[in-house]
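Tutorial sheet, problem 5. The two components below are modelled jointly, 328 residues in total.
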Amino acid sequence: MIYLVDNIIVEPENAEKYLELFQTVYLPDARKRDLELVACWHTPTDIGEDVNILIIWALRDWKHWDQVRHDSVLDLSMWAWVDQIKALRKGGTRRFFLPTEFSPFK
Amino acid sequence: MTIRRLEVYKIGLETPPQTLDRFERMFSVIGQYIPQVQESFLGKNLLDTEPTHVWEHTFESWNDFLEVYMPHPYHACALDRYLGPESPECIFEMTTKGAHVYYETGEWRPLLNRGLKRLVLLRVRSQAEQQFTEALVEEAQRLQAQVRGMTVSSLGRDLSGNIWGWVSWWTHVWEQVFLDEDALKTYLGLDSWVAEQERDNWQVRPDSPVEDVSITLYWKGH
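Model answer (C-alpha cells):
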C-alpha cells in the first residue's frame, strides 16, 4: 500500500468550514474516483494556533494513483471544490508514504 | 518517431522563491530518476502573456510515456506536489493559455533545440483544419528555409485528446528555435501570410481559421 497524506493548514475559524466542505462536497466524488479515505484528523481548534488537518488516503500502488490523477483532472466537481477551499487554506504539504515492515498499521 | 511533450503553466506570482527554486530544479534532475524523460527543460516565458513557464521534454515511445513516466513515484511525489490542483502545495493557477500537449515528429534533432525558443499553440476551427494545416506546414517549411538562424520549425497536431479521451483545446503545436533575436526578427519580417499572422500574434477574427492562440518565448540551453 501507499498512503497519500495531505496536511492542510487553516486558520482556527476556518477549520469547521473546511471540514464540512471536505466531507460533503469533496469526499463523495473522491470515493467515486476510487479514492479510499483512511483517516481525517485535526489539531485542536481552540488553542490559539493554526489548525492542521491531516487527510490520509490509501492507494494500492502507483498505477492506482496514476488512474486517480487522470480521473481527477476530468472531474469538474474536483475543480469546483478547489475553488471553494483555496481561500480557506493557508498552506500545507502533500506526501506519499510507504509503510515499514514493522509498522503496526500497514 | 519522437514524442514531444510540452506543458505550459502559469505559476502563482506569490510563490515563495525557495519553492520556485525547488520546482525548477525538479525538472532539471528528472532524467536521473526517470531516464525515459529526455531533454527535460523548464523555460521561463519572456513575453507579457499569461503563461509563466513551459516544460518541454521528449519520449522515445508511448510506452515510455504512459507505462513508465505516468505511474512513476517521482512523478507522483515531486511533480504532483506542485501541480496537482488539490494539493495544498499546488503553485499553478488556471489559465486559458495553459496546455498539456504532445505531438509526434520524425525529424527531431535535439542538438538544434537550443537558442531562443518560441512555442505557438493554435486552435484551428474544425471546418478549416485540414486545408489550413496543409497550407501552414508548406509555408512554415518555406519560411524556415529563408531564415538562416531558424534551426527548428517543428509542427504537429496535438494528440492529447486521442490519448486521454478528453476534448483537447489546442489542435496544433509549433516549436520554433532561433539562434538569436535577430533571427526571430528576420522571420517575423518575412513577406508571407504566415509571417504576417505571426507578427499579429494570430489575432483571432470571425473569418480566421484560428480560433485561439497561446504564444510563449524563452531561452533554452545556451
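Marking note: Helices of chain A lie at 12-32, 62-74, 76-85. Full credit if you identified this.
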